[in-house]
Amino acid sequence: MPRILIAGCGYVGEATADLCHSNGWEVEGWVHSTESAARLSPKPYCIRVIDVSERSEVAKAAGAFDAVIHCASSRGGDAEAYREIYLNGARNLLETLPKAKMMFTISTSVYAQRDGSWVTEQSVTKPTWQTSRILLEVEELVLAKGGIIARLAGIYGPLRSAMLSKFLTGTATIDASNDRFVNQVHRDDIASALFLLLDREAQTSAQIYNIVDDQPLLQTECYAWLAKTLNRTLPATRKSEQPRKRGNTNKRVSNAKLHQLGWRPVYPTFVDAMEKSILPSFG
């Protein structure tokens, strides 16, 4: 029975831990707070409060694991938080668990393209934001040790959708002069992809994979569909004044490499996810 550590048992990590456990893997999940540990206490696997950025804590908690997924949250932090949690965290895990297969989840924000072009795992990565540049540092570190990199698009799922939340709260805007493609992926499809990548680790070691749904959509198309489906007016048409969390990019992220492994998302499009999973959870 493979033994896996989920270092960051949050929104994505919890779903991945559940999937691994249901497939017979022995799971241990690490969280950052006692509140998170209490919420997850009913789980049928071990939950521990460990700060991956603290080497002494990681070394004390380290056991015999076959695989590790480093998917801790930045908790909304700045570049220094990214360096502590992601870079130092990866170093601590790699050094204290040298025999475990490492997987690191990052964001597709490392692709800084702004022309709406398709990007693959071989595309240029020259992000302008320091946080994304730090993620690339971690990539190099993990790949050098034969690990796997999973670049995640915008995450959505039950009780979580940035686009739906903006639409419902009235903070969404339509900027016709600066429309852009939105790349997203459902939480449960991320979990299935991460499980597949580890299960096929002989094929996937030291490689990068984009995890994103099958159909990037223009932002205006997403809001138009929400307006029609929910019978509400379209968001205001004006230049957006809200800074984008991961920079001013516009690209379409390809998942072709992941599809070649046999991965098929349960929610291949924004519409599928909204109708079957997300809108019902928002009540």
What does this structure look like?
- The strands form five sheets. The protein has a seven-stranded parallel beta sheet with strand order 3-2-1-4-5-7-12, sandwiched between helices. It has a two-stranded parallel ribbon with strand order 6-15. Strands 8-11 form a two-stranded parallel ribbon.
- It contains eleven helices and 15 strands.
- With 283 residues, the chain is α/β, with parallel strands linked by helices.
- Helix 1 packs across helix 7 (187-199) and helix 4 packs parallel to helix 5.
- Strand 2, helix 2 and strand 3 form a beta-alpha-beta unit.
- Helices cover 40% and strands 19% of the residues.
- The model has no long low-confidence stretch (mean pLDDT 94).
What topology does this entry show?
Blueprint: E1 3-7, H1 11-22, E2 26-31, H2 34-40, E3 46-49, H3 55-61, E4 67-70, H4 79-96, E5 101-107, E6 118-119, H5 130-144, E7 148-152, E8 154-156, H6 162-169, E9 173-174, E10 181-182, E11 184-186, H7 187-199, H8 201-204, E12 208-211, E13 217-218, H9 219-230, E14 236-237, E15 252-253, H10 256-259, H11 270-281
Parallel strand pairs: 1-2, 1-4, 2-3, 4-5, 5-7, 6-15, 7-12, 8-11, 9-14
Antiparallel strand pairs: 10-13
Helix pairs in contact: 1-7, 4-5
Main beta-sheet strand count, sense and barrel state: 7 strands, parallel
Instruction: Calculate the terminal CA-CA distance, rounded to whole Å.
Output: 39 Å
Estimated helix fraction:
25-40%
Strand order of the largest sheet: 3-2-1-4-5-7-12
Number of helices: 11
Secondary-structure element string: EHEHEHEHEEHEEHEEEHHEEHEEHH
Task: Please tell me how large the radius of gyration is.
Answer: 19 Å
- Estimated structural class: alpha/beta
Mean pLDDT: 94
Tell me the fraction of residues in β-strands, as a range: 15-25%
State the oligomer: single chain
- Uncertain spans: none
Question: How many distinct beta strands?
Answer: 15
Q: Which shape, going by the Cα principal axes?
A: globular
